[in-house]
Amino acid sequence: MEENRKGHGLAEGKILSIWMILFVALVLLPSMFRVSLGISHFYVKIVIKMLEWATLQIEEGVKKQKALALENLISTGSFPRAGIIQRDETPMEEQVAGRCRGCFSLADVMYFSKKGCEAVAEDEVTQRFSSEELLSWNLLSRTNANLHHTSWKLAAVWVTGILFRYCLLLPFRICLSVFSILLLVLATTVVGQFPNGRVKGWLSNQVQMVCATLGTRCLSGLVHFHNRENKPQKGGICVANHTSPLDVLVLASDGCYSLVGQVHGGLMGLIQKSCMQTSQHVLFERSEMKDRHLVRKRIREHIADKAKLPILIFPEGTCINNTSVMMFKKGSFEYDPRFGDAFWNSTKHSIMTYAFNVLTSWAIVCNVWYLPPMVKEEEEDAVHFADRVKAVIAARAGMSVLPWDGGLKRKKIKESFKEEQQKKYCQIVIENGSVGNGNVC
What we know:
The protein is 51% helix and 7% strand. By secondary structure, it is α/β, with parallel strands linked by helices.
């Protein structure tokens, strides 16, 4: 019995040693030297082939279902009516001003009522705070609309994918995530004891970049960086569209930044405190007005020192679902939603729920474009400069530009927005000459 136990102990020790050697050789060392072995590329290619095959299976199944449905409709003689809202994009000036010349019309009320009903049914703001709609099913359970019933082959691949992601990928990713966080906490604690200087700055940059690279490996991340010659320089400001906390992880794997962001608690708070021990970041409470003034002051002081790291800001102020760029508050990312949803709906999911969803996705595939530096022109105010920067980011990522404030995710619409529409309507009425004449149509 004792010999059997010793034999089992030796076997377990050998297996553990093999796993440790593979981990160091395939994960840790490539992350330290930021070298890709091509494993993620190969894995993503396999997933792409599988998703393309699944799309063909779904299309064939849908064609068969439509043919059967059409036969049933012809036999019964009943056809459903289309229930799609068709929006009239004609500007207010043309619709209202063209209805009744030279007088106020009570029919104008119907225009605003119609627009209100359309906004209740589907507006262009709140849909940006939910997950991006997929063109085809990516074989994830949370995006399944009973499509696995299309064919038994598709159902078999779907079940196999669940077993692969939850039984193989998830345990490995959790272990690697815990290791990365522990390494960050311990390394920043040690480096934080060094006196301020070049050595501490270099060690801090290396620790953060290695931990960020390990973090992207946790997610089977495949990041393509474009136009690296435009990478931010020290003493500058870098702005980017914001989808999730992964934005920071992705950028930090290719360079070091001083971050401007909201104070978090829990796991995010632990990571923030660890990073603050070795580098300077600007954190604030969203609800504190005093913090806003302090943030402006610290940003000015930071960029005045050309030896400090470039400062990274997400001007939208909240996470958007990678389909649009919203109003900037006085780089460019593009995630591929086929492999997993990188968007964090912070009003619906906690950080732990979001982390679980990301860890059980196929992978995180992202493109990052470093755009050329932009300078404010002499006769350009802050608002127009921000709009110009926002337009360049949106154009590069192929996103739509929205004038709305991302703060609408948590707050009610400002009175100034309502007043703006009222002023526009009053201007139309005044130009028509109905004010002072008492004309009512």
